[in-house]
Amino acid sequence: GALFIAMELLEGEALVEHLRQGPLSVSETVQVALGILAALSALHAKGIVHRDLKPSNVFLTPHGVKLLDFGLARPELERSLLASDAKLTGTGLVIGTPRYMAPEQATAETVDARSDLFAAGAIMFEMLAGRNPFQGPSTPELLASILRDEPDWRALPAATPLRLRRLVERCLERDIKLRLRDIGEARVILDELARGGS
Fold it and tell me: What is the distance between the alpha carbons of residues 146 and 134, in angstroms, rounded to a whole number?
């Protein structure tokens, strides 16, 4: 008669723990990014947006990458369903982890798969540079940085291939209309880099 929760036992570590040892190499970054994008691709194919992608929700196992914590995940909403979502999450409420939020998420606007791509870009930047692309001593200042500041691209290692740098730039585009739209396109670029393409 006892209540219990059965959870999967995972071997490995969260990406946030791995990053405490310092930045990843380009090849490690490419492999982890491929895993993140493969998982996001499967999620988005079902019409679901994660909305809280961050290194602590990326788990590195001996068999690949797993995404965790779907507590904020929601189906991509039609305009007619926005009112019911507002009742669940609060009108105008900013939901997620500020350091990895897309601008539209930081301003409590409608999010979609491109919002997850922004977070993936922030994670790729952090894997390469060893720090988040946006800085601020408080949450309001951090959100202001996301909304107005360009990441310091000089923080990326000189050895970062131009195609990888450009991919991260396109993921971190503030204007959602100009941001990378297609995970498939990103995966092609990363696959080529994984095979040694420059």
Answer: 6
Of 52, 116, 149, 191, the catalytic one is 52
Task: Give the CA dihedral 191, 193, 197, 198, nearest 10 degrees.
Answer: 150
Q: What is the pLDDT along the chain (198 residues), one digit of tens a residue?
A: 999 999 888 899 999 999 999 999 999 999 999 999 999 999 998 988 898 999 999 999 999 999 998 767 777 654 334 444 444 444 455 567 889 999 998 888 888 899 999 999 999 999 999 999 998 899 899 899 999 999 999 999 999 999 999 999 999 999 999 998 888 889 999 999 999 865
- Global pTM? 0.86
52 is catalytic: yes
